[in-house]
Amino acid sequence: MSDIKLEGLCFKYDDSDYILDNLNLEIKEGEFVCFIGPSGCGKSTLLTLIEGLNKPTKGSVLIDGVPVTGPGGDRCVVFQHYSLFSWQTSKKNITFGVKQAKKGISSKEADAIALNYLAKVGLAEYANKYPHQLSGGMQQRVAIARALAMDPDILLMDEPFGAIDAKNRMQLQDLVLELCENEEKKRTVVFITHDVEEALYLADRVIYMEPKRIKEEIPIDFGSGRVRANLFGAPRFLQLRNHLITLFYDNADENMGSEPVYL
Ligand code: ADP
Ligand code: MG
Question: Is residue 163 one of the residues assigned to a domain?
Answer without folding.
Answer: no
